[in-house]
Design a protein that fits this description.
Chain lengths: 150, 774
């Protein structure tokens, strides 16, 4: 398999966001066929104390790939970090080690889920506050720590 | 720089590739017995059935697990003890027909969410000790055994020719088959059988097979260990973890078992059908985060495994050097974890069971073998772990590549690195004193540091060499002690006190001279001197947290019970205190790691659906612990005389040892024994050694008094029927046996405290029959 060079990741324009959470509802529709959003959505919009909004979502860094004991996580041809639910054994190592909390688990099943850069949230956002942008894999890639000491 | 994110299928090691005609091998198998079963569902952590196999009669059947059995024995090692109690006799020895090899799992075994949840527990009557030895081990076998439908596997009898046992959870069939063409040594056998029995030709199918095997060494030695395989989908090798202690592999090969294979078609994060999967995932995730954030600042397990201990032990004078004579060495920095880190392959989830993010099973790939039958091949070496590295120091070998060589051959020959290393270290010391020499050692020059001679010893054992020394040396320190004494080759006292064994089993790798509590942690144990019951050195010596005999006795009650609990449940102890929450030091009892204890309470309840608290966890252990001690008594041991440890574990035995730490010992004579400083200066070293000897031996006896009392045992170390009843154990056969043994001791006048109590000191109680009072 040719190594993917680029990947599309989400970019968020906080100043445009009104906190309507349409993106979360669209996302939970993709993953769990429900419009609940919240913990069933891979993208989360968080209201800060000052009233502004922040996005929390997988940035496709792929650190979790090397955490998976059964090889259920890999980078697809389009660069997206993908979790194969059929192979996953639900250990939560990827959830625990994700540096930004982008790998999530909902109460519906033991296997985690994550953003797959499908763009549903982008299309659902009435304010154009979300965008999929193409970046170099090398620029976003993270490797689980392995250095001796710090 | 390591690249990371390499797709599983593209990962490569530079190991030597093997080409085997597996079809031919398989077609040579002859099925001796077959048993088809209906697989039940694992429910709340229990399969509720155990599998019984008799190799003499080729009988295979199931046994039910009753609720009563779960209530008293919990699972794991507890189940093993119960199965053995029902099957063996007090006269059963390791090679008796009725001796069993039991492999058990435990209710929490096989959960993937909490680190360290894939341990199997192995039990048998040990050749080294003549009593039950238990050993815990990682690898995939335990969980797969359970998911194939059985909480435990019980193997009795002996086969007439080499056989393998296949537990096929996919087709619900158990078979006993001959296997004439497969290798015996583990690193090849495990790979052959994994490839042979995988349903499909891909990595994920191979990952669903696990093999238990020993090796050629286990056939000819009492140090035999069992290798439990776990297929590594990235490295594409069958990696192995060892159930090392007590000669399990020796029993395995004596039964003519070449391997036991367990295979399943599917499992997932909920295969245990836990009562509360949400809670499990929540606590597991919390632990993963804790490890992610703190491990690198604490033990650094993820980078170097247990090897991080080498430099700490060296710094605190606890690293066994040259048969425990010294606790540190100037050469030790050559085998610090930083050196092994350079050799380990990195960025691979190195857990011995899925989901263990502590990942201490470090690995050296493409190691070029230096000696023996596999010379020149490039192989994967599992480890070395701290114990194996410390064995290097103990034998005076301070070269990582020779430690790897030793590690590799011990594993593949099926030899326990600890017993092997500790024994060879003793032979080397005897060689240095001239008690052994080249002629007496069948031509081997076993001086400290001679790695080639140590390896040659292993190869000769594996070849079944008939030399007199090899024959005796391969049976361990105790047998060699007897042999040396019988031949009058050296001073009896020196030989007895320098050979590091107790109950017949060799010590693991810590110097205990300055920690009385740790001496108890090695001596006052069930199976023999192994640190899995208590590791109190730092509490005792560095932090001085348990100053009195009562304090030490309390620690020698709580910690052995707590550590036993892991073995009842199929868990690894490391994620309990080799990673600690950031605020642990501020808690009431940091040594117990209260937050993690609560985690275990929660995951136990989340899996089983029971409602227990932390006190009940200790009770679960106390039942099994006392049961095992009672079985020791039943088998003729388990008394004070059996809890004896050699003086090398207690204090400086030789002049060289005394002089190497003269300041420390002189100071103790002044501060602890009240000698005048000038007086001490004038004393001969021999006299000072003698004074310390008597003092420290007596301290150990006093500790034994306090511990027996705390545990509810007689002054001769027998668990009392009253104590057993209090724990809810009412087995009339056992209670009657204990009462009879106590009466026998009474007649011999053995029910007395053994410490020499002077003015102002008193024994734990003045009532000689304290246990009879309500």
């Amino acid at each position: 398999m040719a190594k993917p060079k680029t990947v599309r990741i989400l970019r968020f324009y906080g100043e445009k966001c009104t906190g309507c959470l349409e993106c979360e509802r669209a996302c939970s529709m993709v993953h769990f066929r429900t419009r609940e959003g919240g913990d069933k959505s891979a993208i989360r919009i968080i209201k800060e104390n000052d009233g502004s909004y922040r996005m929390n979502v997988c940035d496709q860094c792929g650190l979790c790939i090397d955490m998976c004991p059964v090889g259920a996580i890999y980078r697809r041809e389009n660069g997206v970090v993908w979790l194969d639910r059929k192979v996953c054994i639900g250990c939560q190592a990827c959830v625990g080690f994700c540096p930004i909390g982008g790998m999530r688990r909902s109460s519906i099943r033991i296997e985690p889920f994550k953003c797959i850069s499908c763009g549903s949230c982008v299309r659902a956002c009435p304010e154009d506050a979300l965008e999929l942008v193409e970046v170099e894999v090398e620029d976003v890639k993270e490797v689980v720590y392995h250095k001796l000491g710090v | 720089m390591v690249e990371g994110q390499i797709p599983v299928e593209e990962y490569k090691t530079a190991n030597t590739k093997h080409r085997w005609d597996l079809r031919r091998m398989l077609s040579a198998h002859r099925v001796l017995a077959q048993y088809d079963y209906k697989r039940g569902q694992v429910w709340r952590g229990y399969a509720n059935r155990t599998l019984y196999i008799n190799l003499s009669s080729n009988e295979i059947r199931e046994k039910k697990v009753s609720d009563e059995m779960k209530k008293i024995f919990t699972g794991g090692r507890g189940f093993g003890l119960k199965l053995l109690w029902d099957s063996i006799r007090p006269t059963t020895r390791w090679n008796s027909e009725e001796n069993e090899l039991v492999i058990t799992t435990g209710p929490l075994c096989g959960i993937t969410q909490y680190p360290g949840s894939g341990k199997s527990l192995c039990l048998t009557v040990s050749p080294a000790t003549d009593i039950i030895c238990d050993s815990n081990v990682g690898g995939f076998f335990g969980p797969y055994l359970k998911f194939a439908g059985f909480d435990a596997l019980e193997i009795q009898g002996k086969a007439k020719e080499d056989v393998i046992i296949v537990i096929d959870g996919e087709n619900c069939r158990v078979t006993i088959e001959t296997a004439p063409f497969e290798e015996t040594n583990s690193h090849l056998l495990a790979e052959q059988l994994t490839r042979m029995y995988a349903s499909e030709d891909n990595e994920l199918s191979r990952q669903k097979v696990s093999v238990v095997s020993a090796g050629r060494g286990a056939e000819h030695s009492w140090w035999g260990c069992l290798n439990f395989s776990f297929w590594d989908i990235r490295r594409k090798v069958a990696r192995m973890k060892q159930a090392g202690r007590g000669g399990l592999g020796t029993v395995f090969r004596d039964k003519k078992i070449k391997a036991v294979v367990a295979k399943i078609d599917h499992f997932d994060g909920l295969s245990n059908n836990p009562a509360d999967p949400e809670k499990l995932a929540e606590i597991g995730t919390k632990m993963h985060r804790e490890i992610r954030d703190l491990d690198r600042y604490q033990c650094n397990m993820r980078a170097v495994g247990t090897g991080h201990l080498t430099e700490i032990m060296d710094a605190y004078d606890l690293l066994p050097v040259e048969n425990y004579r010294f606790g540190s060495s100037q050469k030790a920095s050559r085998i610090y974890s930083t050196e092994f880190y350079k050799l380990f392959t990195k960025i691979i989830p190195d857990g011995c069971w899925h989901g263990c993010t502590l990942s201490c099973s470090k690995t050296v790939d493409a190691f070029t073998v230096i000696t023996g039958p596999y010379k020149g091949e490039r192989v994967t070496v599992d480890g070395p772990e701290y114990e194996t590295i410390a064995c290097g120091a103990n034998m005076g070998i301070f070269d990582p590549k020779w430690i790897l060589e030793f590690n590799f051959y011990c594993d593949t020959y099926g030899l326990d690195t600890i017993s092997t290393g500790t024994s060879i270290a003793f032979y080397m010391e005897m060689y240095e004193y001239g008690i052994l020499n080249k002629e007496r050692c069948d031509g081997l020059e076993l001086c400290f540091g001679n790695a080639e001679a140590a390896l040659e010893l292993l190869h000769r054992i594996a070849r079944g060499d008939k030399g007199r020394f090899i024959q005796i040396a391969s049976k361990g320190v105790r047998r060699v002690k007897d042999w040396l004494i019988k031949n009058k080759w050296g001073d009896k006292q020196l030989i007895e006190d320098a050979g590091m064994e107790s109950k017949g089993l060799e010590f693991s790798e810590y110097v205990t001279k300055e920690s009385l509590a740790m001496q108890g942690g090695y001596g006052l144990t069930l199976k023999g001197p192994q640190h899995d019951e208590a590791w109190l050195i730092f509490m005792d010596m560095v932090n001085n947290a348990i100053p009195t005999f009562e304090d030490k006795a309390e620690a020698l009650h709580y910690f052995p019970m707590w550590r036993t609990w892991f073995g009842l449940n199929g868990l690894c102890k490391l994620p309990w205190n080799d990673i600690e929450p950031a605020d642990n030091a501020k808690t009431d009892e940091p040594a117990k790691v209260p937050e993690h204890v609560q985690n275990y309470v929660d995951i136990f309840n989340a899996v089983t659906g029971w409602n227990v608290d932390k006190k009940e966890l200790i009770l679960q252990s106390e039942r099994c612990y006392n049961w095992q001690r009672a079985m020791n008594v039943w088998m003729g041991r388990g008394r004070r005389k059996d809890d004896w440890i050699p003086y090398r574990a207690i204090g400086p035995l030789t002049k060289m040892e005394y002089l190497s730490r003269k300041e420390r010992y002189d100071k103790q004579l002044v501060e602890k024994l009240g000698y005048n400083k000038k007086e001490v200066e004038k004393m001969s070293v021999e006299k000072k050694i003698r004074i310390l000897y008597n003092y420290r031996r007596d301290q150990y006896e006093k500790l034994t008094d306090a511990v027996y009392y705390r545990r509810g045992w007689t002054p001769n170390g027998i668990p009392t029927p009253q104590k057993m009843k209090k724990l809810g154990i009412n087995d009339p056969r056992m209670l009657k046996m204990l009462q009879k043994k106590i009466e026998e001791d009474e007649q011999k006048g053995l029910n007395i405290w053994r410490g020499k109590y002077r003015k102002g000191e008193k024994p734990p109680t003045n009532d000689p029959h304290y246990w009879e009072k309500p």
